[in-house]
Amino acid sequence: MVHNSTKDRALALLAQKLDSLSQRLFSPSDLTELFIQTRAEGRLPKSFALHQFQTLALEANLLKEVELTSTHPLHTARYHRGDFSPYELSLSLRPGSYLCHGTAALLHGLADEQPDFVYANKEQSAKEQSGSLTQAALNRAFSGKQRQSRFIVTHNNTKIMLLSGKDTGELAVSELTGPGGVLLRVTNMERTLIDIAVRPAYAAGTHNVLSCYRRAIAKISVDHLAEILGDLEYLYPYHQAIGFLLQRSGHSPKSLTNLRKRRLRHDFFLAHGMKKTQFDPQWRISYPADLPDYSNGASVST
What we know:
The chain is of the alpha+beta class. It folds into two domains: 4-66; 86-125 and 146-288, Beta Polymerase, domain 2 (2-Layer Sandwich), CATH 3.30.460. The protein contains eleven helices and 13 strands. The strands form four sheets. The protein has a five-stranded mixed sheet with strand order 3-7-8-6-5. A three-stranded antiparallel sheet has the order 1-4-2. Strands 11-13-12 form a three-stranded mixed sheet, with helices on both faces. Helix 7 (189-198) packs across helix 9. The longest helix is centred in the first third of the chain and has 16 residues, at 4-19.
């Protein structure tokens, strides 16, 4: 049994500790660390257990549990103190994750509308990549719809899609100041443009992707983008899709030199499962027939 004086001391120390932190979301392991620190600093009796500490914090409303539903087992819980953004929640669900695709495009000012999901990626462990590419294999791969993650976590009106992307060593991931001045881990602008070209369904489709590329004029280095793309070492020739999108969105022909130097061995596709298409012979790529063309407009060298 815990005496009231011990409870009051524990709650006072916990409140003081929480007030000193900028963190607003906590995992069970975070609470364990807080408990250990609080007991050490406040000389709480050894009989005072972790579960009692957590129960007291919740009963006193120092912390509240975040209500989460998920399409797959999460095997964890989250607790909050004060308001938090969907982005903070998304990043807290899996340590080492970062915001990407349509969410990153929005945060970088390349898109206006909030995507249906908050996209957060946790990279897989490194795997050997092998195999050769054939035109028949490409045709089969892009004949159907793009595969999408089915790992969806919901909190109130927020839907979070958890992705498990290839191991890149978190290439071109940096911090960006989000709502409320909170630092968020997110792909940089060039990496974001690559990602949404690779998975346009995670950015509301090819029309929206083209709009993002258009907004990126004068904001990015195409040479840096090409360098990142090379480091990602994709088997599929995504340089054809990216070069086409850059040209179609109005980026200057001069800025595409490094991408044009890469070989065009296969006919490629801008998206999966396209119905009415046209073919661009310069980049050897099929694209939706109704995709706008800004290549004849004003362009900006990058």
